[in-house]
Specification:
Number of helices: 2
Radius of gyration: 14 Å
Helix content: 25-40%
Number of strands: 3
Structural class: alpha+beta
Strand order of the largest sheet: 1-3-2
Distance between the termini: 32 Å
Length: about 100
Amino acid sequence: MIPRSIPVDEANRVQREVWKRGYSTRSGGRDAAVPGHQVVEFLRMLDDLPDPGDVSGMEQDLERVLSGGRIKAPFAGSGSWIETVQGRPPRNRVA
């Protein structure tokens, strides 16, 4: 989970573009510290827990996605953390 504060006007466009790049998102509500911004929590599902040092690399990868090319959106904030998911639904397998 990697929360970032982005402008409300950009939220739908940014979420749509990061979905295309393998991220899920959920709203963290309005950013009380920055009027006109909302917190969006960017999520990546991992099969195995990463080494603690790899978590900051995931944060930097997201920031490259948010700043580059098609997305190019202002964002603020830092930090990331891992949440474990219990009872994850099985993947659909094609035979």
